[in-house]
Amino acid sequence: MNDVLNLTDIDQPDDRFSRFNLIGWWDQEKLSSSNALVIGAGAIGNELIKNLALLGIGNLMVADLDNIENSNLSRSILYREADCGRSKAEVAAERARSIYPEMNSHFFHGNVVYDLGLGVYRWADVILGGLDNREARVAINQSAARVGKPWIDGAIERLDGVARVFNPLTGPCYECTMNEVDWKMLESRRSCALLTRDEMEQGKVPTTPTTSSVIAGIQVQEALKMIHGLETLEGQGYVFDGTNHQSYLVKYSRLEDCPTHDHFEPIIELSQNSQIQAGTFLDIILSDLGPEAVVEFNQDLIESFTCHSCQETEIYHSSLGQVTESNAICPDCGEHRVPHFFHSLNSDSKFLDLTLNELGVPLWDILTGRMGMEQKYYELSGDRQQVLGPLASGNNKE
Fold first, then answer.
1. What string of H, E and C letters represents the secondary structure of 327-390?
2. Helical segments of the chain, H only
3. Would you state the pLDDT for residue 393?
4. Among residues of the chain, what percentage have pLDDT more than 90?
5. 351 with 302: CB under 8 angstroms?
6. Contact by Cβ (8 Å): 67, 394
7. Contact at 8 Å (CB) between 93 and 137?
């Protein structure tokens, strides 16, 4: 407790953050220059964003797929009845600025599993997750690991919750905590790659605003410590039993053979963006690595749909995040079509005239170039301005 109050500063001017500055190790400048990525703008996400704004975090990106519904209003402090139908991410970013007008904020409205490029993960100083399904957590875990960043997970159900800090570079990652049942449930979900919105909604869990406040509070507390270089809950989880008001820490074990611990290095920043033709991008990699090099994507991309009843194949390039089950219905006979995927580009690929974005590559992504055992990683930095918007220049006027 010796470092809690700096009594010599007790008479300092009563500015917005004067009470914080009474904490001996506090550095408001570090907070004001920090970049926070919040993935999920539901019950937990609202509390994360509210707390980050109150603390004076300077730059905030909010990512979420959904629009606001009436049922969100009982659990989400940032939303109002008039917001129903609007993007959660957009409204949350807007309301964060209403709490702290000096904050720069922007949003990503889309599928965070397939369409959020790795560039924004690399930009972030702290990554906080407020999601309700394993698939999204695995996606965040893998993306954070690829750019060598720790991330802070939060999960709640009924009156209980857990906050965890994962750093795949030095300790256990989220996938290290998953058991055989978890993986079977995840694979079952992935086995039908084209999910309808109704099926996705089945993953929702019962929550309350009280538990989300507790868990999000711990998450942001860990983010504060991370920004200040203090010791965090890395490799551990804070478990909150809201029924009996008990809490305890659990320690996770690192699985040394977990492939997610590998990160992208070196990363080469290219001036090109995702509108570059696939063939032109491949030429860059061939020139750098050699004539037999290939480009590997971070996700499987859709190449076509085949209807076995009609014996017809339709070329259909997209990411999985941009399609639903309805896209797989044959327009002629109404039967389900089979999607075909690809994961890489080489000199023999048939669609080198399309842009990377037309193939389904997210904006501001980082792609792998491979030649034998040699690998390099190429960031499409030309998309940075489009993804970050006002965050790219530090201007909070949208």
1. HHECCCCCCECEEEEEEEECCCCCCCCCEHHHHCCCCCCEEEEEECCEEEEEEEHHHHHHHHHH
2. 28-32, 43-55, 88-99, 118-123, 134-146, 180-191, 197-201, 209-227, 278-289, 356-359, 384-388
3. 80
4. 79
5. no
6. no
7. no
Q: What distance in Å separates the CA atoms of residue 80 and residue 88, rounded to the nearest whole number?
A: 11
* Tokens of residue 212, six digits: 């989300």
The token duo for 184 is 């079977």
Does position 12 have pLDDT exceeding 90, yes or no?
A: no
* C-alpha separations of 359 from 66, 139, 195, 302, 327 in Å: 24, 20, 20, 8, 16
Q: pLDDT tens-digit profile of 284-315?
A: 999 999 999 999 999 999 999 999 999 999 99
Specify the pairing of strand 151-157 against strand 126-129. parallel
Identify the pLDDT of residue 328. Answer: 87
Residue 265, both tokens: 């290095």
Give whole-number Cα distances, 355 to 58, 134, 290, in Å: 34, 31, 22
Q: Which amino acid is at 134?
A: R
Residue type, 108: F
268, two tokens: 């080469």
